[in-house]
UniProtKB/TrEMBL annotation:
This is Protein-tyrosine phosphatase. It comes from Caenorhabditis tropicalis. It comes from the Eukaryota. PROSITE patterns: TYR_PHOSPHATASE_1, TYR_PHOSPHATASE_2, TYR_PHOSPHATASE_PTP. Residues 12-247 form the Tyrosine-protein phosphatase domain. Pfam families: Y_phosphatase. GO terms for molecular function: protein tyrosine phosphatase activity.
Length: 274
């Protein structure tokens, strides 16, 4: 984590105790004034750069964030935190909205990136769900890059260090799987809620590719070797399993014995996360 340590004095890291691995970190190239951003590529079995897991932008890293999106042609962003949670600042207001300002410009030395608001709609889930997710279309341009249109998904009610209801909502956001470029996922630190989404998508990637799903601990280890400390809490780890078990049951993939196991697991899970 040498680059992470060197970036500390420049105020580019949100948390001193959340490191960024050197081996697969995203490097800012081209004419950008520096290469460091607290972000890592995370692979799935069929895609070596399926995700970019990153921290929530700080005021001084917004330009870096948007240049990263331009550089890597990011078509989808997943935001899993709010700007303020439990009275603490968790993320800088890094994208424009219809209510506030329709265009924002971010600068890093001689370079600048402009982000323009296009439209915003709440996601309507097919199945009953309490999840609140807002999709915003943004246009990004600048720093000598080709203009880019990006879909930004803000999951409004996923609690910090906690879990949302383990319903099918996260599976209904499956259109993100068709993104050609890497999918950017961030919460505040970019490891807990972020790691939970990535782990679910890693399992889905194996399933859709017709591969046998690996043991959970092996999958988590592979993700953590790419994004340090991914999946922070026991509840988040259990949430991944509950979501996947619910998904399997809906598709009639369980025999009678497994249906009983799933019911017991669900009962215990419900008591844990209350």
């Amino acid at each position: 984590m040498k680059a992470f340590k060197e970036a500390q004095e420049h105020g580019k890291n949100r948390y001193k105790d959340v490191g960024c691995l050197d081996n697969n970190r995203v490097k800012l190239g081209g004419s950008w004034p520096h290469e460091y951003i607290h972000a890592n590529y995370v692979s799935t079995p069929t895609n070596p750069k399926r995700f970019i897991c990153t921290q929530a932008p700080l005021e001084k890293t917004c330009a870096d964030f948007w240049f990263m999106c331009l550089q890597d042609r990011v078509e989808t962003i997943f935001m899993l935190c709010n700007y303020t949670e439990k009275g603490a600042k968790k993320c800088f207001e890094y994208f424009p909205t219809e209510e506030k300002q329709e265009t924002m410009t971010f600068k890093e030395k001689s370079q600048k990136v402009t982000v323009k608001f296009e439209s915003s709609t709440p996601i309507k889930f097919r199945e009953s769900s309490t999840a609140k997710v807002v999709k915003t279309i943004l246009t990004i341009e600048g720093a000598g890059c080709e203009k880019l249109k990006t879909s930004h998904y803000h999951w409004v009610d996923w609690p910090d260090r906690g879990v949302p209801t383990a319903d099918n909502s996260i599976m209904e956001l499956s259109s993100i799987r068709f993104s050609r470029g890497p999918i950017v996922v961030h919460c505040s630190a970019g490891i807990g809620r972020t790691g939970s989404v990535v782990m679910i998508e890693y399992i889905m990637d194996q399933l859709l590719a017709g591969q046998a799903v690996e043991d959970s601990e092996k999958i988590l280890q592979k993700i953590r070797e790419q994004r340090n400390n991914s999946v922070q809490t026991d509840h988040q780890y259990l949430f991944v399993h509950q979501v996947m078990l619910n998904y399997f049951e809906k598709r009639g993939l369980f025999d009678e014995a497994t249906i009983g196991f799933h019911k017991d697991f669900t009962d215990q899970y419900s008591k844990c996360v209350l």
